[in-house]
Amino acid sequence: MVDLIGDGSLSATRLGEAIGRGELKVTDALEACFAKIEEKEKDLGCFITLNKEGAFLQAEKVQHMIDAGRAPSPLAGVPVAVKDNICTKGIRTTCGSKMLADYIPPYDAFVVEQLKNAGCILIGKTNMDEFAMGSATETSFFGSCKNPLDPEYTPGGSSGGSAAAVAAGEAFAAIGSDTGGSVRQPAACCGLYGLKPTYGSVSRRGLIAYASSMDQIGPITRDPEDCAALFSLLSMRDPEDATCHGQMRPSYKQLLSVMGRVKGMRIAILRDPSDGKAAKNALENLSKARQLLSDLGAETEEIKLPEPENAVSAYYTIALAQAASNLARYDGVAYGHRTKEPCSGLKEMIRKSRTEGFGEEVKRRIMLGNFVLSAEHYDAYYRKALQVREGLVKRYEQLFSRYDVILSLTMPALPPKLSESLRDPVSLYRDDSYTCIANLLGLCSMAVPFGSLTEKLPGSLLLTANRFAEEKLFAAAGALAGHTGE
Amino acid sequence: MNYDVVIGLEVHIELSCNTKIFCRCPARFGERPNVRICPVCAGLPGSLPVLNESVLDAAILLGLALGCEIAPFAKFDRKNYVYPDNPQNYQITQFYEPIARKGSLLLPSGKRVGIHELHMEDDAGKLDHEALPGRSLVDYNRSGIPLIEIVSEPELSSAKEAAAYLEQLRDIAVYLGISDCKMQEGSMRADVNLSLKEQGRDVLGVRTEMKNLNSYRSVIHAIEAETERQAALLQAGKKVEQQTRKWDEKAGRSYPMRSKEETRDYRYFPEPDLLPIPIEKERIERIRQKMPALRTEKVERYISEYHLSEKDSLIITQEKPMAELFEKTIECGAAPQKAANWLMGETMRLMRETGKGAEDLTFSPAHLASLIRLTEEGRVNSTVAKEVFEQIFFRDADPEEYIREHGLETISDGGMLEELAKTVIAGNPKSVADYRGGKKQAFGYLMGQLMKEAKGKADPGAAGEALRKYL
């Protein structure tokens, strides 16, 4: 069993079971993770901050509860990594930015409270694109992160550190955030499951905002069971997030019971939303998956997406506008980076602090965001983007009256190679074309590893369903599970 | 050339809610800096606002009192501007769809002033540039205090009218119980928009916005000064520049703050952290049912029902706690005019002497009513009554108990008074002789002596009779 921990294939739920039965100690799992970290972290850069001391203290407490027969949850004792834009009380939370390089939050995010209450062990804060702006984990102030499956490539982004840590065996599962694909893309790049839950399903309290109406926290895991276990743990009404719904959520048991049951399910196959640049073997994966689902009794039909280009434009307009406003608070006044240069006054202090504290991509997005919000351009951009969204909401309602799930690629091509993304940042925006629609419309969506793209890199397919229809995602994900490699 | 003054007012009132508008921090300040704060009102990363629905109820209540249409949804927008008293560097307000619009306010003159809209928003913190030399400090205790902004139509035409508008608005908000509206303490703030219009023409002139008006007096002074300033410019053939100006009450003049070119672009957009809250008809009706009587309604009722004069009614209703005290005293059985007299007379005298406001009064109306009854029954005379009232005012004494314990009840027992009369007559032979000799004014002296013997408690009528009997 201890060997199983080491090779990075044991899932979080099975580890939890083993710990619950007393076959493994919590510290066995932790030590395995820290051994991997010791071995690989220098090359990979998955973490910004490790919580070694805190993790072992927590492990001791959780072990006591388990020994006393009071295991707080089936995931008790499982080491979990958390993206560094999710607030952790007493542990610095940097958002991958110089701006918050020394920022220590005075409170835990809702999801961190949930993880702690369930007995999960927080092993560290993972690397990410600065303020979650990027899809290669290369805009991080703390250096980029490598893909553990093929170090020539990035792990995708922005939750690249979370995905890479799980893929490298440095954590058994991880939490990321997804504003336009930031959980699903890195999960895809690292051969993992990544869920972007329905908007309003997981509380955003304590998630440092990028685009408030599209940000959502989700799990990155080795198998769909882990994904279901973490999702049901995190998804709960929080009265302190006004956008977090009171709607009933499926239990872990319910999700397990539907997994793989696709008979009679109506699945729309989306071949190519934008410009036909998808890789050939990726499209072959999609065909294979379609065949598999048909064989299992699902009805599949090919569709074209309504207005794919408009969706990406509307998505970016809204995301950048909200980002510009959300990031206005980083002014060096009460917390965060403040310039050490002499300043003539308040204005200059704020300007210099922001100039020094933010990276290029963040500055670009703040400027674009302020542009689309300006009185002169509001109608032409932001208002129009909201209108496009309204129109798409209606069209997708129609779509979901005919289909249970939409199946597509997660990304049109391979993950970006190291430092490739920094050369042409705007072209990368288009890589979000499959994933961002779920954020724009608040839908739930899940990346599932399927087939392969290169010898080392896995393929990934994307399942998208209506709001609060996560059960359907898990039903289809269960059917696709286990079909990795050639 | 003659000009008409055109004035519109933007008034902010601070709501007296228990908690702040978007978090659960107590809505109090004036304490040590930064003790009433949390991640939300300090704008920390990851914090989220949640609307305090009692703020929404208060806004609906005020909207209804001003005859406004209430919006079907409570929606919020972000107003983006960078200033360190505002920890998020944006304010959450209602720009695209204010909670209430199209209302009006009736001035005592009978003029009806249009209300353009009212909306909810959060207050900012405070900067302190004095405490440390060369540094500025920020206190977020006030950050997140709920505000309602009331925007009038530009329909006021003089400083006097603007002051009357503010007073009426204050009365309404105070009587609704949603704010104490103290301009000096900043819980009511007014910005004045003013322009001049050539008489007989329909075209409005260029307007200025005046800020930093902290009292009714400065509103009046600022309007008068700005009217003169603009008129002088126009008469000299110059143009009025559209700008925001800051009033300096000490100097009695204003200074430009921002010109039109410097107008900020607030980059408003719908607040994504707060979803629109539907406002059901039932909610509006429930609030309407519970609407307390406003000052004007009370004044009308005091005149028609209690037969008070208009003047007395206005004095009693000046402060809401006083009006409440008055009504409760009547409920305890006191005659309205007598209750009014005690409140306007002794009560207000002692308030002035002690510097207390109407909201500080702690005595029970039952005790005042009981004192009034004792005087009516002749059981205490007026001198004693004032003494007893002080005991009520300062320590809410029960007058029945107090006069019993201190033996202050009026002596009206014939036998006792006759004994006193005899003592006085025996002790003052000269005055008795004078009286009997025809000097009627000696009677007054003898009455005084009798009162002295009775320690002021003698019933004057009965005492006079007893004295006459033995003279």
Structure characteristics:
A: 486 residues; Amidase signature (AS) enzymes; 11-stranded mixed beta sheet; B: 471 residues; Arc Repressor Mutant, subunit A; 9-stranded mixed beta sheet; 3-stranded antiparallel beta sheet
Could you characterize what this model shows?
- The complex is a heterodimer of chains A (486) and B (471).
- Chain A is α/β, with parallel strands linked by helices.
- Chain A folds into 2 domains: 1-305 and 387-486, Amidase signature (AS) enzymes, CATH 3.90.1300.10; 313-379, no CATH class.
- Helices cover 40% and strands 13% of the residues of chain A.
- Chain A has 17 helices and 11 strands.
- Chain A has helices at residues 2-6, 12-20, 26-44, 52-67, 110-117, 160-167, 184-189, 224-234, 252-258, 280-295, 308-326, 346-357, 360-373, 379-402, 425-429, 436-441, 470-480, and strands at residues 47-50, 79-83, 121-126, 173-178, 193-196, 216-221, 266-270, 299-303, 405-409, 444-452, 458-465.
- An 11-stranded mixed β-sheet of chain A has the order 1-3-2-4-6-5-10-11-9-7-8, sandwiched between helices.
- The longest helix of chain A has 24 residues, at 379-402.
- Chain A is globular.
- The two termini of chain A are 27 Å apart.
- Chain B has helices spanning 53-65, 159-176, 216-235, 281-289, 295-306, 310-317, 320-331, 336-354, 365-376, 382-395, 399-405, 414-427, 429-436, 442-453, 460-470, and strands spanning 3-14, 69-70, 73-74, 77-80, 90-93, 100-106, 112-122, 126-128, 137-139, 146-152, 188-198, 208-213, 243-248, 253-259, 269-270, 277-278.
- In chain B, helix 5 (295-306) crosses helix 6 (310-317), helix 7 crosses helix 8 (336-354) and helix 12 crosses helix 14.
- Chain B has 3 domains: 3-284, no CATH class; 293-405, no CATH class; 414-470, Arc Repressor Mutant, subunit A, CATH 1.10.10.
- Helices cover 40% and strands 19% of the residues of chain B.
- In chain B, helix 3 (216-235) links the parallel strand 12 and strand 13.
- Chain B is α+β, with helices and mostly antiparallel strands and 471 residues long.
- Chain B has 15 helices and 16 strands.
- Chain A binds chain B through residues 86-87, 93, 95, 100, 103, 105-107, 109, 204-209, 211-213, 239-243, 321-322, 324-325, 328-329, 331, 333-335, 346, 350, 370, 373-376, 378, 382, 386, and chain B through 39, 42-51, 78, 80, 82, 84, 87-90, 136, 138, 265-270, 272-275.
